[in-house]
Amino acid sequence: MESINLFRGYGKVNPHLEDQSPHHQYTSSKRRILIFSVSSILLLTLIIGLALAALIHESNSESEESLYLSSSNPAESIKTVCDMTQYPSSCFSSISSLNSPAKPDPEVIFKLSLQVSISDLKNLSSFLISFNDVSSQAAVKDCVSQFDDSLSRLNDSLSAMEVGPGEKMLTLEKVKDIQTWVSAAMTDQDTCIDGLEEMGSKFLDEIKAKIERSKEFLSISLAIIAKMQALLEKFDQKLH
């Protein structure tokens, strides 16, 4: 009886196997590809959306910062500029001590930094003239002459920024010239120290300390003018 049942079952097709026909397999593969494509498109759309949101947020943040700086008090504006220098504390204290406009921008703050440098260099030159050191008299005389050249270059920088109402104090060409002049003034101070060292001045340490302070102020001015374009952008302004 069992043999008869086996015989009857021979040749019958499993209904589940019929579902695995080539047509069904093709349809299933096509469905999987479609699902994968839709998922990929959705993922790409999500990534693009997140990237755009980040860009919009960054743009809004920069706009808010520019708006804040343009309407902030003088102390905040000076601090923003001074933070771009190597000596932010010295920069802030020296410039804040001067009379500044109600809303100083980077150009005005740079001009104030030049005034600080000029004032300190004048004091340094007067300090050297007062020395009565015979052994280093020639070197001191050279230093005074070099500082006179430095003062001339710094005053040229200030003169270049004197413009009429509504005009910009700085242009790309002026920035390059001023950078050269301030750098030359710093080189003059290094040359002065070299000369004093060669002469073996007994006042070398005292003089070097004052020169280093002067170089610090010049370094502040140089840093501000070198980063003027980036600073103006923070204040929603442009360099012409």
UniProtKB/TrEMBL annotation:
Q: Which CDD domains match?
A: PMEI-like_3 (cd15798)
UniProt keyword Ribonucleoprotein, yes or no: no
Q: Locate the Pectinesterase inhibitor domain: which residues?
A: 73-224
- Write one Pfam family the protein is assigned to: PMEI
Segments crossing the lipid bilayer: 33-56
SUPFAM superfamilies recorded for this chain? Answer: Plant invertase/pectin methylesterase inhibitor
- Which GO MF terms does the UniProt record name? enzyme inhibitor activity; pectinesterase activity
Q: Which domain of life is it from?
A: Eukaryota
Q: Does the keyword Nucleus apply?
A: no
Q: What class of enzyme is it?
A: hydrolase
Q: Which UniProt keywords apply?
A: Disulfide bond, Glycoprotein, Membrane, Signal, Transmembrane, Transmembrane helix
What's the Enzyme Commission number for this chain?
A: 3.1.1.11
Report the Gene3D superfamilies cross-referenced here: Invertase/pectin methylesterase inhibitor family protein (1.20.140.40)
Task: Provide the family line.
Answer: In the N-terminal section; belongs to the PMEI family.
Q: In its UniProt entry, what is this protein called?
A: pectinesterase
Please give the organism. Salix udensis
